[in-house]
Amino acid sequence: MSGLLTVDGLRVTYPGGERPLHAVDGVSLHIEAGTTLGLVGESGSGKSTLGRGILGLAPVTAGTVRLNGKDITHATAKARRDLCSQIQMVFQDPYASLNPRMPVGKAIVEPMAEHLSLSNRELRLESGRLLELVGLSASDANRYPFQFSGGQRQRIAIARALALKPSLIIADEITSALDVSVQAAILNLLRELQRETGVAFLFISHNLAVVRYLSDRIAVMNLGKIVEEADAGRLFSEPRHPYTSVLIGAVPRVHQREDALRPLQGDVPDPLHPPAGCRFHTRCPVGPAVRSDRGSCAVDQPLGESGPDGTVACHFPLTSSGRS
Ligand SMILES: Nc1ncnc2c1ncn2[C@@H]1O[C@H](COP(=O)(O)OP(=O)(O)OP(=O)(O)O)[C@@H](O)[C@H]1O
Predict the structure, then answer these.
(1) b vs e for 8-21, b when ≥16 Cβ sit within 10 Å of the residue's Cβ?
(2) Residue numbers in the chain where pLDDT is lower than 70
(3) Where is the ABC transporter domain (predicted)?
(4) Which end of the chain is more exposed for a tag (fewer CB within 10 A), N or C?
């Protein structure tokens, strides 16, 4: 498939003491120019590692990442650097990514100064333009990160990410540390920036409501694999994978009765020893044993042999698309 970003069978492996951990395990996804793909999943499911793996900032051991059809994973160092400048990443804690001793105007145009030969005057004008683009004032350029609120610092981090006119921004939990009103302002800013500049987002978040607001499509990640990917509306109205259903069922809503919340059962399995077959089956509300008279589990996967009590083990073999 063509498009802006195509990830095919990506595996990211952290060498470990006992055995290597495939934190991302055969992930394939696709992002069209000017669109947003939301990426959700519990803590430790591999979302950040996938974001970093796309940029080559985590140890990729298999698979390919293509930007506009060009292979980033196997490119020469120089080609890779040029390609990667078209993808920028923004993190949860903007304070950590901004140099506290550098005025924000200078920090914003630092990537431009490295990649482009621009005069000081051009860089100054550009920092003012970018600050205004994210809803701050050009005169803020001489102030330091500590002089801004958390939401303003996140705007500065976004302005810095926009400096090289990227075609894709990977936003990793960028609203998680902000209170809800500031969160809403940042989400609206991302939407406006997408309309104005055509930038695409891979938007990583725990928060399904936030992801739904922003995303055209949503991918759900569990233990290093994408178990389901769908249009945002369809994912919420007709979740196909039980993991997606329970994630949606666990989101609190205004006016919801307390006992209507359905928290996920059990703990996230140890990623070094994931359950065999369906990696979710140990926590699945319809598994691990399903009545054989149902004929199939919630995702219509065929079941194994029925036991004496009429139940059968779930043998859902996950593929990266969530269907076998
Ligand atoms: N540098 C690292 N070295 C070894 N293991 C790591 C490293 N970074 C992450 N991991 C492990 O990889 C798995 C995936 O972690 P990752 O941070 O990508 O998940 P996540 O879904 O982004 O979680 P969160 O939402 O909490 O940030 C986890 O088991 C984590 O402990």
Answers:
(1) bebbbbeeeeeeeb
(2) 1-2, 252-263, 276-278, 281, 285-324
(3) 5-248
(4) N
Q: What ipTM does this complex have?
A: 0.98
The domains of the chain, with CATH numbers, are 5-86+166-312 (3.40.50.300)
95: left (phi over 0), alpha (psi -120 to 50) or beta: alpha
Diameter of the chain measured on Cα atoms:
80
Structure-token pair, residue 201:
């987002």
Handedness of CA 99, 176, 151, 109 (dihedral sign): positive
Helices of type H across the chain: 47-54, 77-84, 94-97, 104-115, 120-133, 150-162, 180-197, 208-214, 232-237, 242-249
Q: Ligand 1: which atom is nearest the Cα of residue 51?
A: 18
The verdict on the CB of residue 41 being under 6 Å from ligand 1 is yes
Asked whether 190 and 201 are in contact (CB, 8 A), the reply is yes
From the CA of 309, how far away is ligand 1's center (Å)?
Answer: 40
**Which residue of 18, 19, 21, 225 sits with most ligand 1 atoms within 8 Å of its CB, as the best mutation to test the pocket?**
21
Instruction: Kindly report the protein residue whose alpha carbon is nearest to atom 12 of ligand 1.
Output: 23
pTM score: 0.85
